[in-house]
Amino acid sequence: MHIFWLELKRLLKTRRIVVMLTASVVLSVLMAFMAVQGVTYNDPDARQLIGGREAIDALNKEDNDAYVGPVTVEKLQRALKTFHDVYQKYGQDIPADVYRQKISPIQPFLDAINAVYFPNESNGYQDLGTMNPDRLQNFYTQRFDIIKNKLEGQYSGNQSVLRQAEKLNAQSKVPFIFAKGDPGGTAMSLTFLAFLLVAIGAMITAPNFATEYQSGADDILRSTKHGRRKFVIIKLCASLVLLAAMFLACSLIFILLVNNTVGWNSFQTSMQFSLPTNSLAPLSFLQGQFATLLATLLSLLATACLSLFISTKCRNSTTALILSITIFMIPIMLEIIVESGGNISGSMMAFFADALPGGSVGIQGNFYRHLLGVSRIPFVQIGAFSIWTPYLMLSACSIEILVFFLLAVHSYCRHQAT
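Structure (tokenized):
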């Protein structure tokens, strides 16, 4: 343990690492501020979107207390009947004050109904205005039928995908939960913070061994009593502990600043209620936040272990840094190709985009977006094998932590023998 604390102390005295750690804290505060600004409210009086604290206050003042809680069929029918009353009186030219008082408070319910019963149409108010409220009796069954139709179109003939979707649907708590606020507005800042923390982790760890090779300090350390396997394990563990502490501090800063400002109750809304015909995640937005942070931590540690392994192979710190960042960015670039290339989710490209350490924190395709099913219902299939993408990301990173850790130990010891 004495060697471990000395190594940790050495890391904390390194100027480059201190700068990176300070930057991570500053970025956490900045991303928290941006997350609050990401909360929006469509102000019918001003006919524009407002954001930040003004939007949070407006959302909290909405007269929809009767709709907060379980999203029952009765609440859905009540919302639709309220809309019918307004639509029959004003048509599509609803006055701003009426819209604010009657429609804005029930807009999430109307959006959910529209997504489930009119998934391929865009007539908006006209469709809802002629819909019989009795049709809502099968809302949750109809919702999953739409999901199955999408899956059959995206993954034609793959029964494994349908079985997994049914299992996820069976885990969902029905009815869904609705709460005041806009928890989804903070998502972009959360995912961008995750990307930045993992990138910083790669930059902190990449030069670790290569710097000592380059300076010749490693030759001295190898000649000591514990300068072999025990030494490399201690160095690896010290780096990972430092990154875990950085992640914990930054996550707490972000969560406490954002959730206390937006309101913890806002995050009780079910993720599936936001995108009912895409999301299979049986989680609330609060649970989705913590699941995303868990995926980020695993991605951070897997990326760090990969960077440390690369560092044991390089004799120049600059080369180690460039290689680490390049490999970290590969799944992010692959995900952009996957998202823009149509239905190629069953390809090896999609598998590597999601399975490599950086896949969980991509900009366009990341763990949080896959939980919501923003652009597609996320499954990866290779032949008859298929898996829900969030499960793939969590399991892949967990395995990669162990694999790259052991490879780094082996590579360092082999370098010594050479």
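The first strand starts at residue 40 and ends at 43. Confidence is low (pLDDT under 50) at residues 342-346.
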